[in-house]
Design goal:
single chain; about 200 residues; mainly alpha; about 0% strand; globular
């Protein structure tokens, strides 16, 4: 996919756009490395989680949206607003995805619930739950080495406010994304971008 994308980029003959979307590939690699280095890290903060989520997901949406503005000669203010739109939309999408790791079914997710947690990827619901559930810290630190550790951890997370706090965080980012669209004139395209912000959080219900 990246090879095909690079071919199309080269044919755009626009250096600024090539630089923007090349940055996406670099960010994606950095996000994967960060996730591997920080597995089972109970000292992680929401800010560091959002940084990693930017690299892994939101960078693609942010820089793609900005690239569209650049190709359309929309001006630097519109380009920045569309970058902000994509960034916040991407963060919200990733947060929702991480919530669904706890609330979605195996059939929908294509993997068992809690798969990210089992691999040491501590997402927003987990980080918020750690503030309320001290025993969760112990389970994570021993990397779920005992047979029922993971099921206990999932129960602690579901009995905390972690999922609800993560849902509010996602909603906050979708609202910020929607506000960034105020720079655009009314059109079907603007409506479609607006509808995307509603769709992201609708996946939770």
């Amino acid at each position: 996919m990246f090879a095909q994308s690079s071919w199309y980029l080269a044919n755009l003959d626009n250096l600024e756009v090539v630089k923007l979307l090349s940055e996406v590939i670099r960010d994606f690699a950095e996000g994967e490395i960060l996730q591997g280095l920080n597995s089972f890290d109970i000292s992680a903060s929401i800010d560091s989680y959002l940084d990693k989520s930017y690299y892994k997901t939101a960078s693609l949406m942010a820089n793609s949206a900005k690239a569209a503005a650049v190709l359309s000669d929309s001006g630097s203010d519109v380009a920045q607003n569309l970058y902000d739109y994509g960034r916040n939309l991407g963060l919200a999408f990733q947060i929702v995805d991480d919530i669904l790791d706890f609330t979605g079914s195996t059939e929908v997710l294509g993997k068992p619930a809690g798969s990210d947690l089992a691999s040491g990827n501590l997402t927003a619901p987990v980080l918020y739950a750690l503030e309320e559930q001290p025993y969760l810290e112990i389970l994570i630190e021993r990397e779920f080495s005992e047979s029922d550790d993971l099921s206990k951890a999932l129960e602690l997370i579901n009995n905390s406010n972690g999922i609800e706090k993560a849902r509010k965080l996602a909603t906050r980012h979708t609202k910020m994304a929607a506000q960034s669209l105020n720079c655009l004139k009314a059109s079907d395209s603007k409506d479609a971008l607006q509808e995307l912000t509603n769709y992201v959080v609708s996946r939770l219900y």
